[in-house]
Amino acid sequence: MALSFRMQSSNQLSVQWRTMPPPIQVGAPDTCLRYNLVALSRSGAFEKWRFREVALSRSGAFEKWRFREVALSRSGAFEKWRFREVALSRSGAFEKWRFREVALSRSGAFEKWRFREVALSRSGAFEKWRFREVALSRSGAFEKWRFREVALSRSGAFEKWRFREVALSRSGAFEKWRFREVALSRSGAFEKWRFREVALSRSGAFEKWRFREVALSRSGAFEKWRFREVALSRSGAFEKWRFREVALSRSGAFEKWRFREVALSRSGAFEKWRFREVALSRSGAFEKWRFREVALSRSGAFEKWRFREVALSRSGAFEKWRFREYVSREYVSGAKVDSLANPRGKAGHLS
Question: Residue ranges per domain, the chain?
Fold first, then answer.
């Protein structure tokens, strides 16, 4: 053990305390070593303190190593604190490694906090890796918070990867929140990929919310892809909502594609609703295409409703085409005409 003092002036002091390991016996089957350091220094309003530890232990094929540090510094209203750890353990084909950090800093109304972790483990063909972060910052009415994670795992032909993020920020009446995820998995000819996002923002009477997803999967000649979105916005008496989807699938000569949308908007007595779909499918010489729309609008005693469809199919020299429309409550020369019983439509084919 060692203890040292150093007085640089009447207001400056430095203190260090150490514990030293015993002499190493060469050829000993088991080993346990540790080194500690505690250090303190002051200069006027400034103060710095630190603790460090290094430890090593072995027993046969097992080995464990660790480094730790705790540090603190102050100067007037400013304060900074940090903890760090690095750890490693091995036993035969197994290996585990980890890094951790916790950090805090303050200065008046400002505060910042962070946690980080990096972890790795291996055993033969298996491997797992992960990164995590949690961060928080505040200053008066402002606040920001975030969580992030990156994870990877492998075992032979199998691989899985993922990224996640959760973020929140506030300032007075304003609030914003978001979740994101990106995920990938592979195994031989199979592959799957996905992106997801959920977002929310508020400010007084205004609110906006959104969900998005993009997904892809492959396996040999088969492929499937999809995009989805759900969105909502509100402000007082106004409200708007929407759903969208785009989907594609392929397998050899077969292909199928589709777009869908559902939309709704309201404001007081007014309401508007709509559904749309576009679909396409192909297989060799055969092709089929279709468009559909359903629309509804209301305002007090007024109501209008419409359905439309356009369809086309081909196969070699054969072709068929169709258009349909149903309309309710049309205004013709000032008079209301209900055309539900008499739809307008055209159809034709060539063979």
Answer: 36-350
